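>> received
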Amino acid sequence: MIYVQLAIAPVIVILAYIYYRDKYNKEPFWLLFFLFLSGAFSVIPVLTVGYFSDYFLRYLGGLYEVAYTAFVQAAFIEEFWKLFFTFVIAWWAKAFDERFDGIVYAVFVSMGFAAVENIMYVTGYGFTTGLLRMITAVPAHAIFGIAMGYYIGRAKFDVKYRGIYLILAFIVPWLLHGIYDFLIMAGVPWMTWTYIGFLILMYVYGFVRLKNLAKYKVKPEQQPVSNQNTQMNNAYNTNVTNNESGLQMNENPENNQEGPQPQPEPVQTSNDNSNERGFQNTGNHNQYVPPPAGVQQNQQVPPPPVKNHLDTLATLHYVWGGLKFLAALFILIYVLVGLGLILGGTSDGDMEMQFAGGMLLIFGLIGFVLVAAVGVLNILCGRYLQQKKNRVFCIVMSGLACMNAPLGTLLGIFTIIEVEKPEIKKMFES
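>> returned
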């Protein structure tokens, strides 16, 4: 278990950082979770295609073999399937409404692949390999995802150069990945030092790309509530157009006859109160302008509702609690085995068998109660998230869920991030 947690830890940190950088317009959890799973399952086609690509290794040797392994078997195949799953799942998603979203989607797919790959390496080669990959391979996969997502985001919204950006969405991460693997696999001393410098440059490249697309993000209060409200407010606040004589012309073409149209009598009032009573200052007169249909005087457009993912998280906690109940049922197998040993030992007069059966029975019952209780508490946590109360309890349960890598860890991290937002805290307090 410690190896799995070591392999998953850097993945969780990177995902949390990318999710944090996606400010103001968070992506739905179900989409991010699906992208992460698709990246994890992309290991299957990567290994399958890689198996058949071994055929050409017999014709190569030396650095040519290293280059083929790095640029074709590793970089080309892996980045192709990452791009495939990112494009198929995220390109037509309604939530894909910002350039920065491309980076979020591609990184989640890359981290899904990196999580499975890292588990395979750490469990196969040990603790030291896990520590080394924590600062090299896993962040490198994140940089490849950032490069891919950067150009996917540009292709989505910069239609004029869409074809070029989609090509770059594969070419750039493929070259970065291939050079990264080639430098470390070549076994040449000077290439090892070059690898360290290249790794640093990749980190700088990734942060620059993040900053480049982050500038396109807009705060919710700077966005219009809706086009309809914007148009109505503009119509209500627009000054009346006057002709040269200071008289208003009717905006209806059928009523625009020659000569001035009759106007309401101007009301002499102070400038401070003119707008409140439905009058607008046009030159030297306070002229009455009726509000458009559906808008009352002094009516203020309500602020947009706080966007949150509490309902989605509540559903995931329900599912997680149900999985805990399922695990508790499997633990009952130990209880049944213990009962069988006790009965068998009693009939045969075997004290050792009875003792072993008793231990299995006791530990099985304790495990069943504990796991089932955790399931109940997770379901209760989901209920509290829906009701927006007992925030501390939700944080505690999310912290306990983090101990169950990798799915429980992801659920716990996302829940803690969500309930710690200032606007979400106010919802729980109210």
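>> Residues 310-348 form the longest helix (39 residues).
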